[in-house]
User: Fold this.
Amino acid sequence: MLNPKPHTILGIYGAGGFAREVMPVARECNIADNANIYFVETTPTVAIVNGINVLSEDDFLSFSCERRCFNVAIADSKARENIALRCINRGARPVSLKAANSVCYDNNMIDGGAILCAFTIITSNVTIGKFFHANCYSYVAHDCIIGDYVTFAPDVHCNGNVHIGSHAYIGTGAMIHNGTLAKPLTIGAGAIVGMGAVVTKDVPPHTTVIGNPARVMEKN
Assistant:
């Protein structure tokens, strides 16, 4: 049963694998005392997942409450952006979710809607845009600049002085070599870095690279 008018509700968009991993992080973040937390899907196919009620987007955005918060646990960055804009336009507030054992050091600027999963590390002097996903055991080292809606799969190693454009996807176990302050290593907007790739030079926008060292994937 839904409470008549809770002070705060928190919606975690998605009810798939990643959203189910994020839900315990959301609970431990304690966005507000006695907040009601739900999974949210555009058109739900089930009513409960892992003991948590699943709301439709319309129900979530119209439900009576004093404060409506959300995050988007969906890997597809374009879908993430569209959902975020819809929610913000209807008065919902994006919140960042950070696992208790994630680490952020000094002078970092991380925009709203980030998800930092267990054992992730953001070191120092890093700038990160909106709705960043850092899955388990990933790190971002000093002086990196990361755009909006960027996704790090588990165990990504992003070394210092790397610039990553918006909507880039970095695959599981990828390693990005460090750049320099004078010449950062750049991964362009919308680029995909494949699982286990070792990136040693710039990656153009909207390009997929694979292998060690990373090379552009040939189209058949």
About this structure: The first helix runs from residue 17 to 29.
